[in-house]
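Onboarding guide, step 5: your first structure request.
Type a short instruction followed by the sequence, for example:

Predict the 3D structure of this protein.
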Amino acid sequence: MSFLVIAGLSKAFGPHVAVAGLDLVVARGEFMALLGPSGCGKTTTLQMIAGFLAPDRGAITLEGQDLTRVKPNRRGLGLVFQSYALFPHMTAAGNVAFGLEMQRIDRAAREQRVGEMLALVGLAAFADRFPRQLSGGQQQRVALARALAIRPRVLLLDEPLSNLDAKLREEMQIELRHILRTLGTTTILVTHDQAEAMALSDRISVMNAGRIEQVGTPAQVYDHPATPFVAGFLGKTNVIAVDVRTDARGTAALIGDTRWPLPAGAAPGGATATIRPEKISFAFDGAQGLGGTVRARVFQGAHWLYQIDTPAGALTVIRQNTGDMAPGEGAPVRLTWRSEDMTIERGE
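The system replies with structure tokens like these:
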């Protein structure tokens, strides 16, 4: 039996459809990210799972139980909000204990659980501090400990790291993933941050305009995007017009004067190819490639960022900083990549 099943979930606010017939299955112990731009419906979906919003249509089933008419506090879910929502008049220990008190856990068991949770998030020495005495990262960990203390069936995270600075956010991503892996907690994360979704999740559901455009592992959705939207939203990508043809040499995508072999059976005609900047290499020693000229070259420490003018349009290329000579601005270059690194989208 599937652990969490969302089927045909829909929600509209007047004429605006926030979520349109969403289907999703989450396995026990899985970390699933709902990723998409503002207004795509990911937070509305999370609020319906939590019970804060009633769906217009569809069902949410957890371990075979239909949650649609179950009150939020009866669903057995843990929540961590963007604002952390800590009680300012309670200590860290008091905040973590709150949900356990609502569950009428006896005092001895409650104190033991609070101690375990604070130790798990590295705050055992901060039990008696109030939220105002804690840093943003520490407050976030208290909120996480509070959500985990009730041993939730599913943990819901709504942009939990967005208030942290970039360095602390990266550190908390590592810590959060370690904690949830240790506990094996089923988790759903809502985020607009592509790097965060890829760093934390087992699978990503990429949302757009109330629908899921692709579900897959971070590597799958990044390396093999199912739609142009997915390709463009997850990192940088190049979009190139190609002409698919079949001749005596086989089927290929033609770009300028260069051909890229494709699997047999690809339909001929106009199409669009997407290719990640880091998948493109410079071709040397007369090797075949798409000719171009370096318009701009920007040094970014670990890599060089290039803008290349080509017959197919301006392409972005990322080349790792290996210490080797890098082509300068104005230099003629030839670009190459593997056919399997292209995603072909048929023209209308």
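Each response can be followed by summary notes, for example: Helices lie at 42-50, 92-102, 107-120, 136-149, 166-183, 194-200, 218-223, 228-233.
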